[in-house]
Amino acid sequence: MPSSKNPAIEDYLKTVYSHTEWQPDPITPKVLADKLGVAPSSVTEMVKKMAAQGLVAHVPYGPLRLTDEGRERALAVVRRHRLIETWLVREMGYAWDEVHDEAEVLEHALSDRLLETIDVRLGRPSRDPHGDAIPAADGSLVVEPFVRLDEAPAGHRGRVLRIRDRDPEMLRSLAASGVAPGVEIEVERADATGPHLRVSPDPTRTAKGGDAARGGSPAASAPSTAIVLTAETAAEIWVTG
User: Fold this and answer.
1) Nearest Cα to 227, choosing from 194, 198, 201?
2) pLDDT digits (tens, 9 = 90+) for 135-153
3) 203, 177 in Cβ contact below 8 A?
4) Helix, strand or coil, per DSSP, at residue 189
């Protein structure tokens, strides 16, 4: 999985890929500019360069699409980012709400050799601390059927797959409520204000929110709890379909 070795291009590729990973709408240059925090003219120039390199397909004023080569390179960046996040949580004592910005920096500097060493040391994890799939070295990744929690009907039961990592405060609040990737939830009621959930504890996590594998006591015997989420928070969570 070769990378572009160009931090700017890597950021663009990762952003284009991530936009459609959990929803079907293609990304437009305007949305891309908003996500990256750059001027539309900067996006226009970079898209031209990426198209010339065969990384994206684009028609004027239309959405962007990664080519096969562009997707391969995007997955290489995503792999590095998510492995770094996992490494920081498991080995370096970071909390899951602290790792995104650190990974943004380190993903451009990590050598392929060090990345492979980290992957082996971690036991080749398939998901990062937020539940996002970590692509394998060959670019493959496991994708399960999913539904966004704010769109799940009453009575829906599933396992939390992924929580968007852009809001550290929200991550801390969810962790305090026992909501994290791997926990089982049931939507008891769904309305415009947000879902009412029954949350079952994840037996692989400790009562303090850590990994049982890191020496804590499993929380399997803890009772399920009832919580209410806002619609805004529920829109940041994906569960099994």
Assistant:
1) 198
2) 999 989 888 999 999 999 9
3) no
4) strand
Distance CA(11)–CA(133), nearest Å, equals 18
Task: Quote the DSSP letter at residue 184.
Answer: E
CA distances from 162 to 3, 108, 167, 185 (A): 25, 24, 14, 13
**Tokens (6 digits) for 237:** 């969570």
H-helix or E-strand containing 103?
helix 99-106
Q: What is the pTM of this model?
A: 0.85
Provide, rounded to the nearest whole percent, the portion of the chain with pLDDT above 70. Answer: 89
**The residue type at 19:** H
Question: Are the C-beta atoms of 149 and 229 separated by less than 8 Å?
Answer: yes
Q: Write out pLDDT tens, residues 169-218.
A: 999 999 999 999 999 999 999 888 889 998 987 655 543 334 433 333 33
